[in-house]
Amino acid sequence: MELPAVNLKVILLVHWLLTTWGCIVFSGPYAWANFTILALGVWAVAQRDSIDAISMFLGGLLATIFLDIVHISIFYPRAGLSDTGRFGAGMAILSLLLKPFSCCLLYHMHRERGGVLPFHTDDLGPSLERSAYQTIDSTEVPADPFAGPDGRGQATPRGY
Question: pTM value?
Fold first, then answer.
């Protein structure tokens, strides 16, 4: 499945807008965590070729998924929520629901910029490593580890 081509600025704008609306209800740590990560997103927009910028933004967005779950579950107002409060909470929850999709798009951009994951990911899809790949119709003959100095047959030890 091919991911849609979405501009990094659109991802940043959508999350900034939803975070701003989410701050109607959740302020303090929610705002600090999300706006700090959005600042990393601005850095990723400013430096289009930087792998560090996009990887920091991706890692931060992954971290805010966990932080938002904790923050919303602890600080969600139980009673007396006005219409504005419900709207703000809904936008914070919508931002949380969009973050995994945004992370997939950011990972795709990270790979386009030449970034790789620091851990082994054979189960996540086809590998880009092709050094050990040999086609069937290759004209190269694999080296025989038992060949003698002349390249034929097995090498026999001298003296036998």
Answer: 0.69
Distance between CA atoms of 5 and 113, rounded to whole angstroms? Answer: 14
**Rounded Cα distance, 147 and 156, in Å:** 9
Q: 154 pairs with which residues across the strands? A: 147
- The C-alpha atoms of residue 31 and residue 35 are separated, in whole angstroms, by 6
Calculate ∠ Cα 49-55-59, nearest 5°.
160
Within 10 angstroms of residue 16's Cβ, the number of other Cβ atoms is 16
Beta strands in 45-112 (DSSP E): none
Q: How many CB atoms lie within 10 A of CB 110?
A: 21
Mean pLDDT of the chain: 82
pLDDT in tens, 30-65: 999 999 999 999 999 999 888 899 999 999 999 999
Sequence-distant (6+) residues with CB within 8 A of 130 are none
User: Rounded CA gap, 9 and 32, in Å?
Assistant: 20
Q: What is the end-to-end Cα distance of the chain in Å, rounded? A: 63
pLDDT at 65: 95
